[in-house]
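Notes from the 1:1 (GR / supervisor)

We went over the backlog. Supervisor wanted to see one worked example end to end before approving the batch request, so GR pasted a single chain during the call. The sequence is below; no edits were made to it. Supervisor asked that the structure be written out right there so they could see what the output format looks like.
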Amino acid sequence: MKPRLWIIGLLSAAVAGCAGYRPQPLDTNVALPTTVRLSVDPAQLPLPQLRRHRFDPSNGLDGDEVAMLAVADSPLLQTARDTAGERRAQAFAPGLLPDPQLNGSNDYPTKSSGTTTAYGIGASFDLGALWQHGAAQQAAHHQVRSADLELLWRQWQVASQARLLCSRIVTLEQAHTLLAAEQQLFAARQAHVQAAFAAGNLTAATTDDDLLALQGVQQRLGDLERRILHQRQALNALLGLDPEVQLKLVAEPLPPLSTTEVQQEMKQLARRRADLLALQQGYAAQEARVRQAVLAQFPLIGIGFNRARDTGGIVTNGFALTLNLPLWNRSQGQIALQRATRRRLRDAFHQRLTAAYAQVRQLLDDGTLVRQQLAQASAAATQAERTGRAAQTAYGAGNLDENSYLQLAAAATDKRLEALTLHQTLTEQRIGLALALGSAAPLDGTTGRKQCCSTFVPGSRRRCWPLLP
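Structure output shown during the call:
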């Protein structure tokens, strides 16, 4: 009975260490925040560029503060964090040692006298797993690091997208202000024209021309309002807010650009862009898998120990040795597969690195051209505004007719809108350049994770997510 009790005890201990099952039903309710008071601690953010910025929403949100909100609370990043957690779990299993195997048996004699119940118990372990364990652990470590870096890259992309949406909304609202002022001028002109037409001082053709001019400005305003609505809804979706929430956004200076610093950062793309670092970690994991496959071709040894008693009462102790002879298989198929995968990962890394260099160079060249165009457009807009102010003064003094004044005022608005559009184009190029250069990623190889927390009202519900240091 003692061996049987021993087996029962071992099985009970093994079952006690198993994980339990707890169902998690899906939540089908939608509850997007409509009133938000979000506090972000910059020190807890994973991106160095955001840690240096003070979060103060009291005077409106600039591009950096919107980016901080996006990194802290974007639903896209919540899904990305779940995916990274799934990849960490997938990388966890290969680094574990296999469990030992325990076997037992009982034989009951029948129709015999002078015999006893026979039993056999034994334990075995695959020593080949120890032979490959180091390579498996290395592959798991690099795979976890790759998952963390891919999450960091996704956070950097979301932060850049938030900056982009913020800058577009601010620019579109500035353009709306310019066109609204022009609409007021044309509306006042239309009122004068209608009064003159009613008095019989103007023809219907003249009245129609002025009405068409007013309708043209109104149509442009309507297009701008739709674009502002779409961009605000896109930003709210990125931040996980209700579509009706109206964030107060403020303009910020054009991101500075140092060509010397950009050229230095271009040389360090492979060491600073999180997606490139993730590919390198994935390649290192694959190198370990190739090594593991090579080790698997050597003779695999299994060892076991047993204790038995036959029906005659004779008790024996023994051991078993299993040796896998590498005669035909020799893990050749697995080695070929792992080597082919390594070659694909190497080519993918070089393709991504080459594309990153080309993207940075293209953005630099485009930025130089747009900067020149912006300087010319700004000078033309300044001159047109001077002319418009002079026309306003002359019109007020009765030295210029209303139609000529409106034409000069509309020309000044068009020049200012042209300069505003080029300024936005240059801003988007700077944001794209910052995205292409990447955020300085942690290079110490650690996988420690901090938390970023936010608080909503009503309810003061606090939510935290693991982030990279």
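Supervisor's comment: The longest strand covers residues 300-309.
Batch request approved.
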